[in-house]
Design brief:
Among the domains are: 31 residues, no CATH class; 137 residues, Cell Division Protein Zipa, Chain: A, CATH 3.30.1400.10. The chain is 40% helix and 15% strand. It is built from six helices and eight strands; from the N terminus they run αααββαβββββαβα. Helix 2 packs across helix 3 and helix 4 packs across helix 5. The longest helix is centred in the N-terminal third of the chain and has 23 residues. The radius of gyration is 26 Å and the shape is globular. Belongs to the ZipA family. Interacts with FtsZ via their C-terminal domains. It is a single-pass type I membrane protein.
């Protein structure tokens, strides 16, 4: 094959690559694609990744302007679908140590004759600031310090206890469990003060009832007792250990 023929073939191949690049990069972007995240209002210049909820709000606002329809239902559907992408790290929310000495549990139960549905749980968990991760359950993590492990976690009370995203659309459960495993990466009382309002928020979103570890309504008196128990736990953890008696 002559050098002239090889040159023509090379030019032809290069031309095909150029045409392909034009077709690929010249396609119009989807609405919202390539948007930049606004800098912090305090002028710090630190970059913060947009949360899934913020993205949904932005896209819902754009959809509302285009169609004039209420975007709420579609936004929640988008949120649910994005949670199925399998991107959650299996290590996200894993405890630093498997050792523990106390667990505090609160149940969020469906009302009589009803069930909690998987898609609703997914949406409520995201709205409450939980993250899907280790063991296929939801976790509250310390902001910017997820490696310290979960402050508390949320699981399905139906065995095996996880939220399988492959079948989440069909999932129905009588209750989910919020559990605080101590020691936690923060003080026990602080962890409780984070878990309780999260459980209350999800109960509001799901229309359920909060129960204590004995499956009784979680009332003010029981909440007060739990706070007292966790204060005592924190005091014991802060107290210096007793010195061992010397041997004769």
């Amino acid at each position: 094959m002559s050098d002239e023929t090889l040159l023509r073939i090379g030019i032809l191949i290069a031309g095909l690559f150029v045409v392909g690049a034009i077709l690929f990069f010249g396609r119009p972007r989807k609405p919202g694609q390539g948007r930049r995240v606004a800098r912090a209002a305090d002028g710090s210049g630190s970059r913060r990744e947009p949360t899934l909820g913020e993205q949904l709000e932005d896209e819902a606002a754009a959809d509302m302007g285009a169609s004039g329809e209420d975007p709420t239902a579609q936004a929640e559907l988008d949120l649910f679908e994005r949670s199925l992408d399998g991107s959650a790290s299996t290590e996200l929310g894993k405890r630093v140590s498997d050792e523990f000495d106390k667990i505090v549990t609160v149940y969020l139960a469906a009302r009589a004759g009803e069930k909690l549905h998987g898609p609703d749980i997914v949406v409520a968990a995201e709205k409450a600031g939980l993250v899907y991760g280790h063991m296929g359950v939801y976790h509250r993590l310390i902001e910017q310090q997820p490696e310290r492990g979960p402050v508390f976690s949320v699981a399905n009370i139906v065995k095996p206890g996880n939220f399988d995203m492959a079948t989440i659309q069909e999932l129905e459960t009588p209750a989910i469990a919020f559990f605080l495993t101590l020691p936690a990466p923060v003080a026990a009382l602080d962890a409780w003060e984070a878990m309780l309002p999260t459980a209350e928020r999800m109960a509001e979103l799901l229309g359920g009832l909060l129960l204590d570890e004995q499956r009784n309504n979680l009332g003010r008196q029981r909440i007060g007792h739990i706070r007292d128990e966790l204060r005592a736990y924190d005091r014991e953890r802060e107290a210096p250990p007793l010195s061992k008696p010397s041997r004769w």
